[in-house]
Amino acid sequence: MTIIEFNQILDFAVEREKEAVDFYKQLQNEAKFTAHKEMLAELEAMEMGHIVVIESIRQKGVDPQDIQKSPNLKISEYLTRELDAEELSYQNILIKAMKREENSFKLYTEMSLKFPDQEISTLFRRLAADEAKHKLHFEKLYDDFIQSGN
Q: Among 8, 32, 38, 40, which Cα is nearest to 115's?
């Protein structure tokens, strides 16, 4: 893998994270309750933290040993109902966040399989692992919320 290819992949990942930052900023403007706005601001900050992690990979490179396996509760995969776009409840915010992380995980996983270059594959597997970790975070919050009886 050339340094140009490496940077192009990281630029792509940074752009996806910036889209997520913008997504949560937009939802903050639409949220009606202060608690929801605060949670969305935390999610925005989390996505900005992802950018920092990606930039760290840009500086230090990626090592296959850096790829951590996260359990998959598969909550987001089992949620199929359409969300009411107007209702920004805590539950819907968590579902949107889980689905966003799930889609990023799937994208990076598919990309890791499409490139025969081991370094590129490893880079995409690292990005996918990070998204899996974030998805797990939201799945645990969702599970706690459901178990508490709302």
A: 8
Q: Which domain holds residue 33?
A: 3-147
Q: Is the pLDDT of residue 150 over 80?
A: no
Arithmetic mean of pLDDT, 11-24: 93
> Rounded CA gap, 69 and 66, in Å?
10
Token pair 């790829």 is found at: 67
Rounded to whole angstroms, the Cα distance separating 37 from 55 reads 27
Domain CATH code at residue 42:
1.20.1260.10
Contact between 97 and 136 (Cβ < 8 Å): no
Q: What is the pTM (predicted TM-score) of this model? A: 0.82
**Angle between helical axes of 3-30 and 90-114 (0-180°, round to 10):** 170
Instruction: Report how many domains make up the chain.
Output: 1
The size of the chain, in residues, is: 150
pLDDT in tens, 100-144: 999 999 999 999 999 888 888 898 999 999 999 999 999 999 999
- The rounded Cα 32 to chain-centroid distance in angstroms is 24
